[in-house]
Amino acid sequence: MDIDALLAFDRTHLWHPYASMDNPNPVYPVVSANGVRLKLADGRELIDGMASWWSAIHGYNHPVLNQALKTQIDQVSHVMFGGLTHPAAVELGKKLIELTPTPLQTLFYSDSGSVAVEVAMKLALQYWQANGESQRTQFMSLRGGYHGDTLGAMSICDPITGMHSLFSNVLNQQVFVERPGCRFGQPCNDQDIAPFAAALIENKDQLAAVILEPIVQGAGGMWFYSADYLYKVRQLCDQHNVLLIFDEIATGFGRTGQLFACDHANVAPDIMCIGKALTGGYLSLAATLTTKKISDVISENEPGVFMHGPTFMGNPLACSVALASINLLLESDWRQNIADIETGLRTGLSGCQALDHVADVRVLGAIGVIELKQAVDMKSITEQFVQSGIWVRPFGKLVYLMPPYIINQDDLSVLTSTVTSIISNPE
């Protein structure tokens, strides 16, 4: 392999996420991955602190997941879901309906988290259209939220501090409420919930749904908020007859210490989006689940069908590895693993709290966040991490860790001590 030629082509022709073609950030060619380590073309190995954006919860090259794909590919690798079905989609659907909150009984497969959010929004819109309330076209969300990069999903991301302000003049105008100040583990008092309650009452007749990331706001700010706040949001939506959508794409499958983040508050949404860790990071797959009430209203009124249909919906390979990944998770002592990671992150990152240029350090489950007072230099700090043998991908003011669940305490200690050292001594 001519690595220089590979990198030259990449630099000249391939877009990377949130990157420039004229002044691209450095990229590091991965030639193999195993466990929690990424092997670069020059032979260096990096401890992965990102789980490939929350998804590779079992690490890389896992024999159980490898075998699931090998078995499935000898049967059928893909078949259209329009008019056909297959065992992998059915068995995965059974498992997801079993594991998610009880009211969620129908499921729509899609290809990515952003599309799962688009599907959730369309479900809400079509539900109210079928109910004869076609004026309900807006969505309400929390500031600091992130829900994806497609057009509808962008409209419900934070319009000011988010990454999509460039498109604000073409996005549907939605309703935004300040994110809750009550942190995870704290009660939510009347003052905390008052802005949400006021906005909901003012806009309820125009709202198709409230959509939020339960407990953990991800790429919009990595903020952890009170489970009591989420409980009160559910009560208010019920009281004022507004649908509630939970975006569990980043938080699902154990990352916060519960199987789904909404379990911290013991509440159920009307619609839920899942993705990322669904396949253990092997293939792109997402799903949107909803209640029988919503699916019945849509199905029993014009046009009598839900108007969406991805080409690769319910792909057999993706469904089979997703089912294997979920079973692998459930058969492990995942709660203890997450608790051990949480302890390691708290201990390992605690030294950053006293640094003058650090605004906050927060940890929940297998998520550790260092919020700086100023944005990092992406090129410089990423290179420092790579030179020190770890893979960490910060953004803005946030340096955060979300390792695979299989990481051991020695590797976690290396990860946290290296991050602490580099942040303590910035170049």
What's the number of structural domains?
A: 2
Mean pLDDT: 96
Order of helices and strands: HEEEHHHEHEHEHEEEHEEEHHHEEHEEH
Strand content: 15-25%
How are the strands of the largest sheet arranged? 4-12-11-10-7-5-6
CATH superfamily (homologous) name of the largest domain: Type I PLP-dependent aspartate aminotransferase-like (Major domain)
- Biggest β-sheet description: 7 strands, mixed
For this structure, the CATH topology of the largest domain is: Aspartate Aminotransferase, domain 2
CATH level-1 class of the largest domain:
Alpha Beta
Q: Look at the helices and sheets and give the structural class.
A: alpha/beta
Distance between the termini: 33 Å
Shape: globular
Low-confidence stretches: none
- What is Rg? 22 Å
Please give the share of residues in helix.
Answer: 25-40%
- How many distinct beta strands? 16
Count of separate DSSP helical elements: 13
CATH architecture identity of the largest domain: 3-Layer(aba) Sandwich
Compact summary:
The protein has 427 residues and is α/β, with parallel strands linked by helices. The protein has helices at 3-13, 51-54, 63-73, 87-99, 113-130, 151-155, 190-203, 227-239, 292-299, 316-331, 334-349, 378-387, 409-424; strands at residues 30-34, 37-40, 45-48, 104-110, 138-142, 175-177, 207-212, 216-217, 223-224, 243-247, 271-274, 286-291, 358-364, 367-372, 390-391, 398-401.
Describe what this molecule looks like in 3D.
The chain is built from 13 helices and 16 strands. Helix 5 packs across helix 9 (292-299). It folds into two domains: 3-61 and 336-424, Aspartate Aminotransferase, domain 1 (Alpha-Beta Complex), CATH 3.90.1150.10; 75-331, Type I PLP-dependent aspartate aminotransferase-like (Major domain) (Aspartate Aminotransferase, domain 2), CATH 3.40.640.10. Strands 4-12-11-10-7-5-6 form a seven-stranded mixed sheet, with helices on both faces. A four-stranded mixed sheet has the order 1-2-3-15. A three-stranded antiparallel sheet has the order 13-14-16. It is globular. The chain is an alpha/beta fold and 427 residues long. 36% of the residues lie in helices and 17% in strands. Strand 1 (30-34) and strand 2 (37-40) form a beta hairpin.
